[in-house]
Write a structure and sequence with these properties.
Strand content: 25-35%
Number of helices: 6
Largest sheet: 16 strands, mixed
Shape: globular
Helix content: 10-25%
Order of helices and strands: HHEHEHEEHEEEEEEEEEEEEEEEEEEH
Number of domains: 1
Number of strands: 22
């Protein structure tokens, strides 16, 4: 019996978190995968343009929707050199301090021991059945918009994909805040009091046009991923606040091609999907240095220059893409009532953001391509120079089934002064 107990104790030790500890070197590699070498692909160089005549050469580094779009002549892609994006030092330090205390929970969508930083910085393993879920938590707790961010002005343009007609433009003011797990903007590590343990808040207000002016939406996401979000909607013409059912996150938002579930690339709980890690590949993604754009349009007061649209019906952005180390995920909704069959998501390994998401219907056919362009913060608006993250720069949703698109022009600033915590009180919806 004594020998048996010794044997079991050895096995337990080998399976313990300490035996699987992630090293500082592995964490450094997670945040700088290009420290020793940058990804390459035959004939893919800075300034190369991929079009319908040569796209077959680059099929292996393109997602299937983008390959199809280029093959049809809908748009071209210019290639930019792969650049490492220096990440927030506080976030990296928090990862090194806390990562070895983090475990995936016994129940799907649960996590244990998380404090701050990247929860699972080790390389994903195809043999790990919960590798996809771990990567989804890396996204949830990533520097998606820093500890707080304001996107203002924020223009949404609705277009007919066949005629190119600009049907409608809505102007928003969007704000995001982390109440918990903060690393760079005081107060650190959380905003108190916060008895409900709200992790993240989103607030949006419509500024124009007149028929939807003053419409506001407020969403609270809880740190407990198994707890449903709370949301409220204020309709200016009714002058009242009502609770918003988060079962409607897949409905069209204000007539656009976006759902609430598409906010920030993907606004959903980890527990909303069955996640599968499909592998790692070098892929072209819309990650670039925004200040180096060759063509620019509208200029903001701080000097930030918006990208211009291009391609079929002006439904795409004229920004370069770069070759990036990419984790490929598949997410199947747990809710059988969801109109989505699956999402295929391309997670940039360095920044843990989703620059590209393909949305398929229940029949397995492509429904939408959701492309979110990110810029190195040091090459974005002047105020973001030291943010240490990938910043939202452009976004376009192309619905290939309804022949429609929505383009988003973003002026995103990482600055706590622009995002007062009072913005995220329900009472604020009546008086903002």
């Amino acid at each position: 019996m004594k020998h048996k107990l010794i044997g079991l104790s050895v096995i337990a030790a080998l399976l313990s978190p300490a035996a699987q500890a992630v090293t500082d070197a592995e964490i450094d590699a997670s945040f700088n995968p290009y420290a020793t070498a940058t990804p390459t692909f035959a004939d893919l160089k800075q300034g190369a343009v991929i079009n319908k005549d040569n796209v077959d050469k680059y099929k292996d580094v393109l997602d299937p929707a983008t390959y199809s779009f280029i093959k049809k002549g809908w748009h071209n892609l210019e290639v930019e050199a792969t650049h490492s994006i220096p990440y927030d030092k506080n976030y990296i330090a928090a990862t090194k301090k806390n990562a070895n205390n983090v475990k995936i929970g016994a129940k799907m969508g649960t996590i244990e021991g998380y404090v701050a930083g990247r929860p699972f910085p080790a390389e994903p393993d195809l043999k790990d059945p919960r590798a996809g879920e771990k990567l989804a938590f890396n996204y949830k707790y990533g520097m998606i918009a820093g500890d707080s961010e304001r996107i203002f002005p924020f223009y949404w343009e609705f277009r007919d994909f066949n005629s190119g007609k600009l049907e409608r433009t809505i102007q928003f003011d969007f704000r995001f805040i982390n109440f918990m797990h903060r690393v760079s903007q005081p107060p650190i590590p959380e905003i108190t009091p916060n008895p409900a343990k709200i992790y993240r808040g989103v607030y949006a207000k419509v500024l124009a046009p007149l028929d939807v002016k003053d419409t506001q939406i407020l969403i609270h996401r809880y740190d407990d991923d198994t707890k449903a979000d709370d949301a409220w909607l204020y309709l200016g013409f009714q002058r009242r606040v009502r609770r918003l059912s988060m079962s409607n996150t897949t409905d069209a938002f204000l007539g656009s091609d976006l759902m609430i579930e598409d906010f920030e690339g993907l606004w959903s709980r980890v527990s909303d999907f069955k996640w599968t890690y499909k592998g790692t590949a070098n892929m072209l993604l819309p990650i670039y240095r925004h200040s180096g754009l060759k063509k620019t349009g509208l200029v903001e007061s701080d000097g930030f220059k918006h990208a211009v649209t291009t391609g079929k019906s002006d439904c795409f952005y004229d920004v370069p893409w770069s070759l990036r180390k990419t984790y490929i995920l598949e997410a199947v909704p747990n809710d059988p009532a969801s109109p989505i069959g699956k999402r295929v998501l391309y997670l940039d390994s360095q920044t843990a953001v989703f620059p590209q998401i393909l949305i398929y219907d229940k029949k397995g056919e492509l429904w939408k391509r959701w492309t979110v362009g990110f810029s190195d913060s040091a090459y974005h608006a002047p105020a973001n120079k030291n943010a240490g993250m990938a910043v939202y720069s452009t976004a376009s949703m192309t619905d290939v089934q309804s022949n429609h698109c929505t383009n988003l022009r973003l002026h995103a600033i990482i600055d706590a002064k622009l995002v007062p915590k009072e913005t995220f009180n329900v009472q604020n919806l009546r008086g903002d």
